[in-house]
Automatic annotation (TrEMBL):
Key word Transcription present: no
Stated name of the protein: Uncharacterized protein
InterPro entries recorded: Cyt-d_ubiquinol_oxidase_su_1
Subcellular compartments: Cell inner membrane
Topology of the protein relative to the lipid bilayer: Multi-pass membrane protein
A Pfam family of this chain: Cyt_bd_oxida_I
Organism: Iodidimonas gelatinilytica
Molecular-function annotations in GO: electron transfer activity; heme binding; metal ion binding; oxidoreductase activity, acting on diphenols and related substances as donors, oxygen as acceptor
Alphabetic keyword roster: Cell inner membrane, Cell membrane, Electron transport, Heme, Iron, Membrane, Metal-binding, Transmembrane, Transmembrane helix, Transport
Residue intervals passing through the bilayer: 33-54, 66-89
């Protein structure tokens, strides 16, 4: 990782070592918020289903107009949640390579992805 900043890693200064170490840290906020939004959408599916089950079971299948519009509005949200799940998996996979790159016991990861420090 130091070869980005200096030709011979033995000659690296403390500032170059600190900068190389900071470069290995992934950005966390996209993963943080996409996961939470995916989970929130999942709970909203359960809430919508429970509401309509309750209305159809105990209220004689009479639905207020806002509930019907809300049911139409949630139609694309499973696709959005699936895309967010894909993002969480791929973002973690792409940035996980850098985290495991320099561990001595992860030689199979280094050779598999051809990432060398």
């Amino acid at each position: 990782m130091l070869k980005r900043y200096v030709d011979d890693p033995r000659d690296a200064s403390e500032a170059q070592i600190a900068q190389a170490a900071n470069d290995t840290l992934p950005t966390v906020w996209p993963l943080f918020w996409s996961f939470r939004l995916m989970v929130a959408l999942g709970f909203s599916f359960i809430a919508v289903m429970a509401y309509f089950f309750w209305r159809s079971s105990f209220r004689g299948q009479v639905y207020p107009r806002w509930a019907l519009w809300g049911a139409v509005a949630v139609i694309p949200t499973p696709w959005i949640a699936a895309e967010l799940g894909w993002f969480v998996a791929e973002y973690g996979r792409q940035h996980g390579q850098w985290m495991a790159c320099c561990q001595p016991h992860c030689r199979s990861v280094i050779f598999r992805y051809r990432i060398c420090c």
